[in-house]
Amino acid sequence: MKKLESTWYNMAIVLTLISVVAGAALAYVNDLTAGPIKAIQEKNEQNAIKAVLCSDDAVVVKTEEVDGCTVYITEQGAAVKTEDPANGSFGGGLTIMVGLDQDFHVLGYNVLQSNETPGLGAKASTWFQKGQKGDIIGKSAGPLAVTKDKGEIDAITASTITSRSFLRAVNHAAAAYSKAVGRKLDVNIDTQSGASPQQENKKHN
């Protein structure tokens, strides 16, 4: 076979062919993996729903999309996939699943995705769990705020911004659930601080 001359024209043809073949291969691999990846994500999400509701028998009877949240309504309450509406976390955002009972008390939560600084914001996955320093389990998500904002929740050490972001996400989940079921929360939530107007007034007095 005759060797191609090293001209710009021949090099362009070879590079184009390589790009086409590589693109086709990537598309083929993507098609092969898209289904399994989606199935894994759905399974993880279902497991997260059961975990945050603390029930292996939780059955989703209705799903609603409300203000950027996905609300999975069950007989026990709801599991809400949510993010900080103000997107104010240090690392660029937290995606969490929050379990709420019918009175908007937190049953549990699960951090689904985090871009936070390892060792700081990443602590959100445990910091606010039952028995931990920032425990929110059993508390009413209407609203929750850190102590610096005249709330009751201890912020993650050296990571107040992420703590505020996390609590805003939880409060946002409660607000979305309340809209989905047509029940009004007792307070309105400030998307900048995560605090209620009452707490904001206390902070400035």
Shape: elongated
Strand content: 15-25%
Q: Helix/strand-derived class?
A: alpha+beta
Q: Calculate the mean pLDDT score and round it.
A: 81
Task: Walk across the major sheet and give the strand order.
Answer: 1-2-3-4-5
Backbone CA Rg: 23 Å
Number of strands: 5
Domains counted in the coordinates: how many?
Answer: 1
| Helix-strand sequence | HEEEEEHHH
Main pleated-sheet profile: 5 strands, antiparallel
The DSSP helix count reads 4
* N/C terminus separation: 87 Å
Uncertain runs: 191-205
Q: Level of helix content? A: 25-40%
Structure description:
- The chain has 205 residues and is α+β, with helices and mostly antiparallel strands.
- The chain has one domain.
- The chain is 39% helix and 18% strand.
- It is built from four helices and five strands; from the N terminus they run αβββββααα.
- It has helices spanning 8-52, 124-127, 160-181, 197-204; strands at 60-66, 69-74, 77-83, 94-101, 106-114.
- A five-stranded antiparallel β-sheet has the order 1-2-3-4-5, with helices on both faces.
- Strand 4 and strand 5 form a beta hairpin.
- The chain is elongated, with a radius of gyration of 23 Å.
